[in-house]
Amino acid sequence: MADALKQWYVQGLQALVSANEVGKKGAEEGTYQSKNEEVAKLAKSSADMQERHAQKISALLQKAGSAPNGRENPAMTGISKTINHMVDHADEQVKDAAMIAGGQLALHYYIAAYGSLASDAKHIGDDDTASQIKQMADEVKAQDEKYTACAENLVNEQAAA
What we know:
The protein is an all-alpha fold. The protein is 85% helix and 0% strand. The chain is elongated and about 55 Å long.
């Protein structure tokens, strides 16, 4: 049973490598596409966060005796396509609001993935790794709160005007 869980955990880390590549690319695009400086800053900080997380995840994979497998993460690819569709089809006055909503959609994927992987790491007896993954989840939650504040205090107000 423990071997199956460890294998599942490693596959989850491998999926996050691909997810971070897709997410970072999307966040970088948001940095350049946004007309709102605050939204652009949030997108940039998300891209930077994903870069840091990618490095941590690679280290965790190595610690687990594995490496990235180069496979596409279909969940994050689908989320990315959905976000692109949302932004591309939004009226000009609400594009930044669509980018915020899309960013949060991606962030919620990471919250779920990191939470699951932290639990898996704990159950295979790696409390240190579980703690590191929980820290990444906490960072993503804090980023999500920044997106919410930006949407509520700036972008949605501008879109409604």
